Amino acid sequence: MARERLKADPVVEELGRLYEVAEENLRESVKRAVDSKALGTARYREEQLRLVRAYLSAVQDRAVPLATEAVAKAYSQQALAVDAKVPGATGGFGGVHTEAATTLADNLANSLNDAAELVGRQVEDVFRKVGLEQTALGVLEGKSRIEVTKAIVDDLLHESVTGFVDNGGRRWTLQSYGKMVARTTTREAASAGTANRMRELELELIDVSSHADPCDICADYDGNTYALPGTSVEGYPTIDELPPFHPNCRHVTTASAANLDLLTEGAVTAPA
Question: Is 117 part of a structural domain of the chain?
Fold first, then answer.
């Protein structure tokens, strides 16, 4: 079974490139601000922070539609793939599909917006710390002030700007988090599209995609066939949860060819 390539994957990569550029621009903006003696004044800090927030907002205005597009593509691709494998099935998805895809897209947008907001707070913290240090070092001039400020800037740029720690203690950059949550959610959408369409057609067997060198979490699932959660099919184990099984997981589900065997045997009824 080949690796499942989603139409959403290029969109996820585009999202990653968007955040990569955003990170570089933010670092440069913050560096210019902290290199200025004016950061010791509250008025200048507020103006620079306003510019950073406006830039982050502009990035999100591009990122959120991309994320929504990725989810919609992944969901519809896998739902339509079910029809392609089932004789007599036709497309034209109803409210359950729209609601499911919209919920996933909204969750992804909220995660991306939360990350951008957190990065904004990190930049604010950088400005505050450097501003306080510059105020304290106001009597210093020339090389001494430059050396001390540079040490502060280098430390804060590497540890804070465009980076944050999630609730699990993992450190992310805006780019790595954006790509992770987009990749994971699109695969969640792909599996949901498969499962929801199969339930409409009263089919129960799914294949988990196969990938080279699956991780320990996924190894037992890789390339295997299961009954959907909440169903029971003789000869097949029931899967407890659909992929993705962890952040950045590559796995999705597809309708299994074994469903055709059940149709042939009369165990399930083909769609009218």
Answer: yes
The amino acid at residue 194 is: T
Place of tokens 């320990």: 216
pTM of the model: 0.84
Structure confidence at residue 55 (pLDDT): 95
Tokens 């057609």, residue? 201
Residue 228 lies in a domain: no
Pairing state between β 205-208 and 225-227: antiparallel
Structure confidence by residue, pLDDT tens digits, 152-181: 666 655 655 667 777 778 888 889 999 999
Query: Does a structural domain hold residue 179?
Result: yes
For 238, the 3-state DSSP assignment is strand
Give the integer Cα–Cα distance in Å for 168 and 177: 13
Q: Are 11 and 70 in contact (CB under 8 A)?
A: yes
Q: Which domain holds residue 96?
A: 9-201
Rounded distance between C-alpha atoms, residue 203 and residue 201, angstroms: 6
